[in-house]
Amino acid sequence: MAQARKPETPEARLQALMKALRAQGVTDPAVLAAIEKTPRDLFTPDLFKERSWEDSALPIACGQTISQPFIVGLMTQALTLEPRCRVLEIGTGSGYQTAILSRVSRLVYTIERYRTLMKEAEARFATLGLTNVITKFGDGWEGWPKQAPFDRILVTAAAQDEPETLLAQLKPQGVLVAPVGKGPVQSLRRYAGDGKGGFTVEVLCDVRFVPILDGVARE
Ligand code: SAH
Known about the structure:
Elements: H1 10-23, H2 29-36, E1 58-59, E2 65-66, H3 69-78, E3 86-90, H4 96-103, E4 107-112, H5 115-128, E5 133-137, E6 150-155, H6 164-167, E7 170-180, E8 186-193, E9 199-207
Parallel strand pairs: 3-4, 3-6, 4-5, 6-7
Antiparallel strand pairs: 1-2, 7-8, 8-9
The protein binds S-adenosyl-L-homocysteine.
S-adenosyl-L-homocysteine (SAH) binds at residues 64-67, 90-91, 93-94, 96-97, 111-114, 117, 139-141, 156-157, 210, 212-213.
């Protein structure tokens, strides 16, 4: 039997990826459009450029990873963003998820504990002309009290415990999405504010994220 051939051009690879995302349940048109117009190969290291359109996480500098496109789509969709939203992201990494968020919200605040990654991500935002991203080098587990409260919060590294400090920086009817768990596999949770200081929590699926680490890194 003939094997399915790998699509040849970057555009064909992108379209194959978009099809795979839709098939897995990423259906929000704004989220799909944001992914479609964000060149993931700008965010992957040279060694893995060829694999930029695969639906898989890939290694980046500082021992971190760029998230899998499906997970980026799923998490962005789970945030139920509106164009007026101010969003806080913990774990800038390559900046890929940040770029997607910036296309579907008003302002994105993003925190990274590796200065090297932060600088590289900032250069990419400039290349793409994304002017609504505000970066910070620091420990994201503390959130960004001076800019709180946020309409939405997205955590892109695994939280070992309940993200209480971050939940306290969410608007009463805000939404926070985070992988929570101590092991290599965590559950992706969606916290939705009930407007009265409480939250309803929904478990979306199992995910594998690098852990949130304390403090800032030296690199
Ligand atoms: N969204 C990123 C995923 C990066 S992986 C992307 O698509 O590329 C998770 C990132 O979280 C790593 O860059 C890691 O350095 C960062 N991180 C881990 N703990 C952190 C903390 N306490 N504060 C800020 N960033 C943190």
